[in-house]
Amino acid sequence: MPDMVYPAKPRPGDRIAILSPSAGVPAVFPDVYELGLSRLRDEFGLVPVEFPTTRAAAATPRERARDITAAFADPTIAAVIASIGGDDQITVLRHLDDEVIRANPKPFFGFSDNTNLLNHLFHLGVVAFHGGAVMTSLARGGAMHPLSAGSLRAALFDSGWQELTASADHGDEPNDWADASLRGVPPRMWPVDGWRWEGARRVVEGPLWGGCLEILSWLLQAGFVAPPERFDGHVLVVETSEEMPAGAEVFRTLRNMGERGLLERFGAILVGRPMAWNFERRPTPEQKAVYRDEQADAVRRAVAAYAPAAVLVFDLDIGHTDPQLILPVGGDVRVDAVEQRISVRY
Fold first, then answer.
1. Which of 142, 161, 180 is the endpoint of a domain?
2. Which residues form the LD-carboxypeptidase C-terminal domain (predicted)?
3. Among 10, 162, 180, 323, which is most exposed with the fewest C-beta within 10 angstroms?
């Protein structure tokens, strides 16, 4: 495996590619998409550049791969950001031109189904960024959450170490995009107590790997994850999506990683606060708490069996919930369980 390379950072005024490597949702909710683009322009000073499939409702995997390769090859493009996730990006990977991407590394931002590309870039030796899709945190009702905006700004433009801050509030009930009257209304938020630290009390520093747990499971099934020894000294991050996998499924995925000899390689395991609500399943706050506890127990069981010496941190503000901290996949992270601090190098 190659050494990891941090791509050069964009600067305000640079052109940034906006791609839809998974679902063509910008074609379905163009006003939400445009809101995210306007914030990239107005609040971050970047120039969004669309490619042929960015607003295409049904682009083929080969067509989407062509746009990804073209965005990396284009010398006028300084970074790449996904419009949103989906559920079939794994079919895009075999159509990518890896030599072009490896020769032209650029910062890539995305999460959820974009865990596929984050892992693919990791294999190519390119640090990429978990978080920051156009139609989610950037197009949040009312305004971007300050923590999301600050983290994205640091990941885009800064190169040094950044200490992460736990949020004082949390949301997992996004506004209904079909209701245009909610564009200026912030989503509902609840107060939270921050991160929960368990396991070993020590400092772990190393490269980060992971993403959406459901997508990691698919990648493992398809044979797209590096051999276990590649992850010696790494830190694992996992979070789950709005599909709300049951605790049993979370445990089985982590157990299978353990049986593969993978889970034991990680000195620290970071777990995102679970998404506990969707438009089809609308649990009460009490039911949400039960679901989150079941998922945390599932993680604890797997870690106790396969990585008992690991530092374990729950309820990070990452991935599918609001706000969203950006994490560098393949980049450096320091998990200090003594002082209970987490820092990343952007």
1. 161
2. 205-335
3. 180
